[in-house]
């Protein structure tokens, strides 16, 4: 045991003296969580719109004043109906609200709308369908809240993220991406560097068993990753405003399990990579695409084709991100994510077992 502790101390001192490693492990997660947390945003902060109103009645003016009072809307003025296409094509506005000529009578129920007539029409620029869909929802909600168009519209309650902040969605995804990339990359590169420089053979002739040598190299990275986890959780809560409404103990425990899985993945990569460049390519580039595309970080897994949904099941980040969203955003307890925890634990056991077996086979 003393020999094992000496190896842990040696690896820790080696990492602490390597400023580049310290920057990657500690500074890069902070930069990424801040960059992605503020840069990736699907929130609508300003919708420029014009209005077409043949009769500028008091009801029309009241509706436009209510919209102007909303910080999400900017009223650009009245236009003629023939200029709708021009203002949208030229980018002067994202939408045009068209009021019917008998708008007052329609909303009061005095007149009955025909099949091709509506009290209000929304004309939107859909060159970016994501923005257009969000703009339509905001415009509809502004009229429904006023009760002027759809008095019988159902009441809507948005739970867990009533303000629809994009950081609530992206922070768990960024956590899943950062931890698996950095932990796997640092572990794999560290072990491959020892093999590439020839110092691994020197270590293996020591009285300490090879398995303990590998664990000694992983422990310092695990401790550094724990420090990064604490920093990321603090930034997510106090800087990005992501709630921690669920079980904090469960969130930390789940994250520690995910860190172990990521380190085990790095150990497995080190058994199939012969150079540091290959280890970086496998752990960095080849892992990044599946995590981003198949984990649910950016795109819902439910919307993917069936074959991709099946493939996403083998991506560890998918289960971690789902569990973190339940714990952080939905405010559930650890018992609510037992399935994700079991899957991550099984993946960790399998990766550690396969990696150690392959490592021992290469030594023999």
From the structure above, extract its key features.
elongated; single chain; 4-stranded mixed beta sheet; alpha/beta; 364 residues
Task: Please tell me about this protein's structure.
With 364 residues, the protein is α/β, with parallel strands linked by helices. It contains 14 helices and four strands. Strands 2-1-3-4 form a four-stranded mixed beta sheet. It starts with a helix and ends with a helix. Mean pLDDT is 78; it is low at 148-156.
Report the mean per-residue pLDDT as an integer. Answer: 78
Beta fraction of the residues?
5-15%
**How far do the termini sit from each other?**
24 Å
| Topology as a string of helices (H) and strands (E) | HHEHEHEHEHHHHHHHHH
Task: Name the shape in a single word.
Answer: elongated
Main sheet, how many strands, which sense, barrel?
A: 4 strands, mixed
The helix/strand class is alpha/beta
